[in-house]
Amino acid sequence: MEDPLEMERSLQLRKHARRVMGAINTVVENLNDSEKVSSVLALVGKAHALKHKVEPIYFKKLTGVMLEVIAEEYPNDFTPEAHGAWTKMKTLIYTHVTAAYKEVGWAQYPSATL
Question: Where is the Globin domain positioned along the sequence (predicted)?
């Protein structure tokens, strides 16, 4: 999908966005439980590698866009400390998801940055 209006109207995209935010919420709620965080993000990574065939670089792009949107929507609340925390979250997500790609032997895009 490239048309923003089509994206806005897409029920499938909304459903996926809810699942994405639900997974991120689960990670945030369990930051003190590294096994739960690893488990959730491993499931996400494996599903996207094996079932959906999504290049892992898109996780880096998505989390970067999320930071931009949060900063735009909540400029007064997105302090340097909040930015730092979300940047750590971005790294955490990407690190765990790409580890899952490596675990399943991701080879569809050998030049993809893992």
Answer: 1-102
Shortest CA distance to 49 belongs to which of 90, 96, 107?
107
With residue 70 as reference, give the H or E element that holds it.
helix 57-73
- Segment 29-46 shows an average pLDDT of 95
For residue 6, what are its two tokens?
Answer: 């089509």
Q: Which of 48, 45, 27 minimizes the C-alpha distance to 36?
A: 27
Interhelix angle 57-73/80-103, rounded to 10 degrees, is 160
pTM: 0.81
Check if the beta carbon of residue 79 is closer than 8 Å to that of residue 37: no
